[in-house]
Each structure stands twice: as C-alpha cells, then as structure tokens.
Amino acid sequence: xxxxxxxxxxxxxxxxxxxxxxxxxxxxxxxxxxxxxxxxxxxxxxxxxxxxxxxxxxxxxxxxxxxxxxxxxxxxxxxxxxxxxxxxxxxxxxxxxxxxxxxxxxxxxxxxxxxxxxxxxxxxxxxxxxxxxxxxxxxxxxxxxxxxxxxxxxxxxxxxxxxxxxxxxxxxxxxxxxxxxxxxxxxxxxxxxxxxxxxxxxxxxxxxxxxxxxxxxxxxxxxxxxxxxxxxxxxxxxxxxxxxxxxxxxxxxxxxxxxxxxxxxxxxxxxxxxxxxxxxxxxxxxxxxxxxxxxxxxxxxxxxxxxxxxxxxxxxxxxxxxxxxxxxxxxxxxxxxx
Length: 338
Known about the structure:
It is a single chain. The chain is mostly beta strands. It has one helix at residues 2-22, and strands spanning 26-32, 37-42, 48-53, 58-63, 69-74, 84-89, 94-100, 107-113, 116-121, 126-131, 136-142, 148-153, 159-164, 169-175, 191-197, 202-207, 213-218, 223-228, 233-239, 245-250, 256-261, 266-271, 277-282, 290-292, 298-303, 308-313, 318-323, 329-336. It has a four-stranded antiparallel sheet, with no helix packed on it. The radius of gyration is 21 Å and the shape is globular. It starts with a helix and ends with a strand.
C-alpha cells in the first residue's frame, strides 16, 4: 500500500510538469489586416498557435498586464464595431464583446501602462484611457492636433507622447502641469500638453530606454527628428533615405534604432549615438509593425506583401526565419504569460 501511494503522486507531478513545459512563456501577437484576424504565436518555437477574429479594420494590438487578453483598435466603423476596441481571450483564442468608446472615433495607437490601456482617437483629436478593472474609459484628453496616431506612455505614467500625422507634430503630455485644452477628464489630475513641430508624415516614433530622447520618423520628408524630451524641442534632424517610413523602434539596450519602410523592402538600422546607418536589411517587401523581444535578441517585423513576419537576429542583423501569420500582418505585440 505504501508503495502505491508513492507512485501516484510522482505520476501526477510528472503530468503537471509536462503541462507546465508545454505552455508558452511568451506570445507574439500579429494583426492580419487581410482577413481581420489576430495570429497568436509561440514566441519561442515561432509556431502559430491559433487565430481569433478582430474588428473590421484592425491596426494596433497590446496585451493586458496579466497576459490573458489582447486589446485591438478598430480604426474604421462597421459591422457593429464603430468606435471600439476588440478584446481577445488569449487562452481560448476567442473574441470577447468589444469595448464601446462612445464618441471617441477612429481609435488607432495603443499603450499599456500602470495596468491600464491608453489609446489615440484620431477622429476626436484626443487620447483616452481604458480601465480593465472597471471596464470603463475613465479619462480622456484633447491633443488639439490632427491625426493623433500613435501613443507612448512612460513607465511611471507621468508622461505620454503622441505622434500627430496630420499636424506634423509630437505632443509631450506631462502630469502635474497646467491644464490641457478641453475637453478633458480631471480624474487623473492636471496635464500639460507641449506641441513640438517635426516633419511631414510624422507617424512611427519611440522613446529611448533612458527616457531622454524621442525619435520621430517623418515619412514624407525622409528625415528623423530627434527630440530632447526634457527640453521639449527638436535637438537634431537626420536624413534617412526611406521612401515611406512606417514604424521606428529602439533596441532594448538603446544602442540602435530600427525603421520599417512601407515603400521599400529594407529595414533601416541606425546607430543611436552616431545616427549613422549601420545596415539596410532586405526584408523582401514593404514593412510595417516592429516588435522587439525583451531580451534584445530578435526583432519581429511585419512584411504585409509576404503575409508574414520576418524574424531579425539583432546581433547579425539578418533575417533568420519567417512566421506565416496570415494575410497582410501589421500591428505586433509581445505578451508574457503566467
């Protein structure tokens, strides 16, 4: 009897260990514009685990703080998804009821900070914040700029940054300053909005890991504006021969900057200190979304014309593999599972 009791717990332990080992520790999420789906990828094996329905015009995606949900912006109205965020359960790979954003139209950019979801609303020239715990939009703020497109939130959530495609500008939004232009919700306190003029086609941008510089790719000017975040002004403008820059991202260590180009098959890699072009990586087609692996080993780049995501080794700066995510991938996100 004592021997039998010993065998059963060991069997259960082995089963539990196998189940734990099979569960991915991180997921790569890729939005497919061509068929309005979210591809859920095991970030280690690079295998597509499944796909879930998104809204009618998905553009950007972000994971929840606990790694269980994905939130997706539906840029255009239609099919009952007007002014909304789609929600996907990553475990069941099923779409949940969308989040109604009310009068905030044409949502696009997304950022996760402090457990809340920050988003842009181009049609309303504003940004907002969704609280998953209350399931409500608990704060909004007007930027006063046309085409408020992408958004970045600092880790302490005291600074927000937006790229404003139509106004060729960046907004630096800081908590604790003078009041911002109305309408705004005072739930988060007073905010100061500083508008920094940049170049035409201001879209893809990123904040350096040390929070000191904000780099903006100006798609129509073939330039990158480097903004001193503390001084709130452009410190330097660098010429980069892209045709139609889409996204710009720092590597996690802050030493390099990657710029995708919708108009050419190359990924530009710049040295963050010298601003020189280190390499032009052939992706085989025009590219959009960029997602860095947190450990700095790889970058994932959406190549819409090839219906795949290119995996770029950040040491060799070469494409090592491709993930067939679906038709027309664009927005990407990284989710750590628990």
